[in-house]
Amino acid sequence: MTENNDHAPLIRLGGVDFIPDVSGVLFAPSLSLLIVADLHFEKGSSLARRGRGLLPPYDTIETITRLEKVIKRLNPERVISLGDTWHEPQALARMTIDDVSRLQSLQSDRNWIFISGNHDSHLPTGSAFEVANDVTFTGIDFRHEPSSTGLAPEISGHFHPVVRVKTQGRALRRRCFIANHQRCILPAFGAYTGGLNILDPAFAPFINPSDATIYALGSDRVYRVGRDRIIAD
Amino acid sequence: MAVRHQGWCRIRYSDDAVKSIWRYFVPYHVKKGAVHSALFLNTSSQLDRPTFPGVASDMADDDMTSLLPDQFQTWFQKRGWEPRPHQLALIENIKKGKSTLLVAPTGAGKTLAGFLPSLIDLASLDVQDLKKRGLHTLYISPLKALAVDIARNLSTPVNEMGLPFTIETRTGDTPQSKRARQTEKPPHILLTTPEQLALLLANRHANDLFENLKTVVLDELHALVTSKRGDLLALDLARLYKLSPELTAVGLSATVRKPDDLRRYLVPQNNIASMAELVTVQSGAKAHIQILKSAQKLPLAGHTALSSMREIYAAITAHRMSLVFVNTRMQAEFVFQELWKRNDDALPMALHHGSLDVAQRRRVENAMAEGKLRAIVCTATLDLGIDWGDVDLVINVGAPKGASRLMQRIGRSNHRLDDPSEALLVPANRFEALECQAALGAVEAAAQDTPDARVGSLDVLAQHVLGMACADGFLPDELYQEIISAAPYHTLTRDDFDAVLDFAATGGYALRAYEHFAKIRADDHGVWRIAHARAAQHYRMNIGTIIESTMLKVRLGKPTKAGMLQRGGRILGEVEDYFAEGLVRGDTFIFAGEILRFEGMALNDVLVSRASRVKDPKIPVYAGGRFPLSTFLAERVRSIMATPLQWKTLPHEVAEWLQWQKDRSIVPKQDELLIESFPNNDRHHLVLYPFEGRLAHQTLGVLLTRRLERAGLKPLGFVCNDYALSIWAMDDIGQAIADNSAFLSNLLSEDMLGDDLEEWLDESSIMRRAFRHCAIISGLVEKRFPGKEKTGKQVTVSTDLIYDVLRRHQPDHILLKAARADAARELLDLKRLGDLLKRIKGHVSFRHLERLSPLSVAILLEMGREAVYGEAADAILADAEQSLMAEALQA
Q1: N or C terminus of chain B: which is more exposed, having fewer CB within 10 Å?
Q2: Chain region(s) in chain B for CATH 3.40.50.300
Q3: Least CA distance to B620: which residue of chain A?
Q4: Are A31 and A16 in contact (CB under 8 A)?
């Protein structure tokens, strides 16, 4: 647990307090639940396979290392990965043995649920990891893509939200959480995951930035961003 | 080597060439007024003027030269000209297969000299041979407009002599069908750019195309070799020599400090002594250069030259056509606006800078060529290239920054080699007055300060390796030998070459994850070829070394009643994306000579409306176009300051200022670094005067601030210009220095370029910026094309993310090495900073003052300048200046 909880911004959904963590995960202390979105393992090799450039093949190990750090720090009993854990169905087969075993040892002694996303909905059968469609827990829906029809409080990923903030003539682009009383969309966690500006029309059916709260990831903490400072790409 | 003087010119060449040429040299005669020796003026509009750059002569001379065939002699005579000696020297050299560098000032007939040998050689072929000849001469220019213009002008002698040659251009604008035809049935003379040459060489049929190439002409070589484009061209030249062993190269260059660097560049470096021949044309008449003495006092800071605007306008009215050079696009906009305000005579004036729409720039150039303009306010965009107009005055507003650059700019006036150029230097502040004086001395001494030869970049090499794999493939041993024959890559180690090869193939990663996805691979005979069509296409799309910051189009447009933004208005030009980011609806700024109001963004367009009634617009702030003060000029500035006898050449207020400084603090000796400390406005200042240019000062400022932070002195910030930097802090830095004699030398010790620098680079965005450029040039990521960006989730991975991952997991990767070299050279100026720290050891003069010094006022005024614009800023500055100077001068 972090000590300065008093100052950390909180997201309250379905009667539960969630902490948007600087690493990009969402954490509910009362449920000992950690939620992470869009890990996109093996995105680098996936691009390489399709002839889209030979990016450093260290994104999976980097993502796992970051995940290890935050799990060690928060030590949750439950973990939900909100889909697109693997960049493509074949990605799992390309992970090194070392990466797979590190991921597995992260799973030991805690409950893990992998929700399937549009990138990894067809993982090969019999693989080491079980994937669910979506999950409801303590009255909150956890799914990959937000749903425009669901009535229950909802936590999702998929959109890789980023916010562009204007300060003194300069603009910063940061991954962010976007949340209102009904739902929260998580930033993408994977090392090579880009982002979609929250002012993009794609967000509109699910969440309206003008009555939502934006939590941008800084280098050592999360910042609530004033709506007047937000600009489009 | 022989040197001959002939009044206005001096030519050097090898001894055996001497006899044959000098026998034919005809003394130089000019019929005043009948001559226009500017080479390749825009002939279409100047039909009444001779366009051939020979020497006019009223003497009939039957013994003109055996080097010139009859038809050329006849043609020369018809025009009333004789060839200039350097033109003959080139003919002689090329005939003997000797590559040659021609160094000549503007107006010497350089470009024709480059083509004459080829025209003569081609003219000696009979029609049948000519048909079979294929590509004979390749001409490479840094500007595609220049290639097009020269092709047009070449056609004059060729048509008039009835020579049946084909001359064509090939640029990015050439239609695909014509390009395909050009590779199948090439013209005799092809004019193109370095990028297009790289593409041609990466063609499967490159061998057939170039095997009989006789001559390659590299124009504006002095400008090309200072950038990564020069690296690319060097590699392509090495390849041309391999495909066509009989090739001779001709380099055309303005005067440079080290011609030997260029002579090496032109020929394969198979042994240390390999250099092209050198032909030098000394400039004719000395330029008339004056420093403007304004009726108003020069301000201490600021770059607008507002106080001299009246005199600038007067100078323009007194001349036919003036070129007004400024250093940044922001200054260009400002100066143009101010001149326009004073334009009571309704003189036609125009603006020319890199952000303006290409079509608009072409219109200005044409109007210049037609003599329709009286003044053109421009940035470095007119440094190079075609002599568009009949300019009789060059005005340089602001600091010249470098002696060679200034001389090239001045050469834009009076293209007649033998008439003096006329120029006016307009300092905008007192430090700039010192710099102008230093530049004047440098020009008088004909001293040059062009940069040292480059060490070839590894990212450019990676691009070239891919290109060679797209061509006919290569054996690594042979390719390595070829590459180190190019001067910039002569010191490339085999290890680095192998690392680049590995990078080009599979990314060069210690984790061998991509063997199956290789872009290039070796066949059974060890020949490396491109592995799949997509990799070849990727290479072709990403060719080149010029990475622009993303530019957004500025377009007229207004919100409709429905509140939607309406596009489709006229495009005024482009701005860098970061400028548009800072705009809020309703903001006004000067652009393209107009005051515009920002209405909003629509896709990649910045929508604006005209806001002519607005008085105080916010001016675009561009980083582009700023050159740091050259080391050489800096030395001269220090020398002027250190020599009070020279002060009387300076404007009165500048001399007075230095005298005040001498009375209240000290004026540093030539090789001394002055450091002052004093309290001001609840802050303690530490001001250093290294005169080493903005980049080096910025790096020094960051590193010193970190050290002071560690020493617990609570530094708050720093500001710098080309001459000095000031750090301010909560605590009394001066006292800390005065109390501890070792403190200052520790603060300035060279080890700041060790761990402190590394720590900073880890945190700052500098390495990320350098890495982005290397990642694009080397082909790691795809270049993004404006308008083709996906609007949704980005498909491409940002290079910042790649940088972070790569640095953590493979810090010795070849691309990080390339980025590091670029950052050190182009963003940090580490070499200069290192030299400074060495130079000042034991030569630091520290003054612990009670109040600010007169010299320091100029740098303190830079504080907060970034936030204020235009005239208002000057008013504030003037006010601030008066009160500060009053304070400095308190008894």
Answers
A1: C
A2: 2-280, 288-444
A3: A169
A4: yes
